[in-house]
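Study this chain:
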Amino acid sequence: MNPERALEKLGFSPNEIKVYLALNDHGSSKAGTVAKITGMDRSSCYNAIKTLQEKGLLSYVMIGKVKWFQATGPKRLLEYLREQEEDIKSILPELQARHKAVKVKGQVRLFKGIKGVKAVFQDIIRTGDNNCVFGKEDQLEEFLPDYQPQFIRQLKEKKIFVRELVRQGRGTNTSNPRQTRYVPAKVESPVVTNIYGDKIALIIWTDIPEAIIIENAAAAKAYKNYFEFMWQNAKK
């Protein structure tokens, strides 16, 4: 992953990324020089410098009456992430309490894009219930190769047992512990169904993946019964 993409995933704005990388690559510079290097207007450049300073990622020294800005060491990014994590942890109890207070039973949630799909997988981990899956054909490995090992590790840590139904000839490495049965090769679908706890997660692996979580005990029970029927009639 290139630095620009990584910083974007961490929530940095395009202008912040340009300024931070310019100072990281060129060393101490005046604001006007940074604006020229990045091709930004001075106002946008100063705003990005200001927000990066607030995040502790830039510092400056005075040489005469002129400020020379410099990026803090790249390891400061890890410290910044830890600070963000601590901030989130500090408000989690209140947010969790408020979330429970307004939760609607039988709700349907929609997710779009890679980040949305990852949120669904993390919901499977958070819920902690065993997972029944059908329609899976290594899509996770294909679309999220960096995330897949993390998901496997989390399954192991939470001791989540996964049973899966896949097409014959289409192995998968995601489940742990692995227990797989096979349906005929002609049964093909881009939709992967996960049944866990009182939830059903439908993941649609198209060019821009989408996902749906249905939280309904009756619906989950019906899907689970359907899965058990297929499981009993599938090949080992």
Summary: The radius of gyration is 24 Å.
